[in-house]
Amino acid sequence: MLNKIVFLLLITVFFNSCAKNAPDLPKDYSSVNSNEEIRETDFEKELLILSCDEIIIQIKELNTFNEKNIDKINSTRTQNQAIGYASTILFPPLWFAIETHSETKDKIDEVYKQKDILYKLQKYKSCN
């Protein structure tokens, strides 16, 4: 009985160690009690020359890019869940067959950072 408990505990720790932390939130520039100000020096020179319409276009392109990456992750979700259940109950080494999409998730995180910068630029330029 003790061996089963230890085994289940080890499996639980293993699964939890594979989870990815959420990216850090950007600084707060827009709330009522914000202490941060947006400055021109917060942006690269090539971003400052963008018009409001160009910023919107870039945000839409980033959204499209992210949608494709999210679809890629979702396409293997059911398979990964089945493998996860089977590896927990039947054969733990099956866990290594799960597609983690680490690179895709990193790309998504990077796109979110780029979008945060563009949203901040919209606010700085007073785009509506």
UniProtKB/TrEMBL annotation:
Indicate yes or no for the key word Signal: yes
Keywords per UniProt: Signal
Signal peptide feature range: 1-19
Q: Give the protein's recorded name.
A: Lipoprotein
Taxon lineage: Bacteria, Pseudomonadati, Campylobacterota, Epsilonproteobacteria, Campylobacterales
Origin organism of this chain? Halarcobacter bivalviorum
